[in-house]
Amino acid sequence: MSRATVAELAAWGWLLVRLSAATVRNAQPGDDEDAIRLARTAAVAMGTEYAPRNDFLQAFGPLTVAMKRAENAMVEDRPDRVLAMSQRIPVADLRPTSNNRNRHLLDVAQARVSLRQYAEAFDMLQRIRHDAPEWIPNQRYARDILVQIISQRRSLTSDMREFADFIHVAV
Predict the structure, then answer these.
(1) Which of 67, 146, 157, 171 falls between 20 and 30 A from 58, CA-CA?
(2) Residue 36: CATH number of its domain
(3) Helix (H) and strand (E) counts in the chain
């Protein structure tokens, strides 16, 4: 690893992140943490986020690993851990078009719903919409979160109705 280039570390780290995601979804306790720990090692060696030329979707670095650890916690239904982890992730440092950033913010919104913090969850959806209006209407995860929020209300605010229309949720 000491002789690897940043691009090689990023490729290796990204594969480990994907392995971690697969193992956590396949309920393989321990394997997911091993993979994400190794990914973090590569990210720390890099020191910063790296994206190959013309491919920001393959960004990898310490922030990516932190967001993916939070995603794993959401898959494990640990919303408390998601929120604790998210406090230490400076998402403002990332481009609003980053799929990793936006996905992470959806995980934060879902964690808030899981903890019955519906107003905060809706605020997060609105933030994502503001930052990535072309991205959010195409996300089933966002629609599912909004449906959960709506199901807990007797009446909807005009903002909620307008947002539901924007992301194609029937109310």
Answers:
(1) 146
(2) 1.25.40
(3) 8, 0
Q: How far apart are CA 155 and CA 151, in angstroms?
A: 10
| pLDDT tens figures, 112-163 | 999 999 999 999 999 999 999 999 999 999 999 999 999 999 999 999 999 9
Report if residue 80 sits inside a domain.
yes
Q: 131, 167, 127: which is closest to 146 by C-alpha?
A: 167
> Is the pTM for the entire model greater than 0.85?
yes
Q: Quote the number of domains for the chain.
A: 1
CB 42 within 8 A of CB 93: no
pLDDT band at 73 (very low <50, low <70, confident <90, very high): very high
**Structural domain contains residue 131:** yes
Tokens matching residue 76: 């494990």
The two three-digit tokens of residue 60, written as one number: 């990898």
CA dist list (Å): 9 to 1, 26, 135: 8, 25, 29
In-domain check, residue 54 = yes
Beta bridge partners of 50: 60
What is the Cα–Cα distance from 41 to 10, expressed in whole angstroms?
Answer: 11
**CA 65, 71, 72, 74 torsion-angle sign:** positive
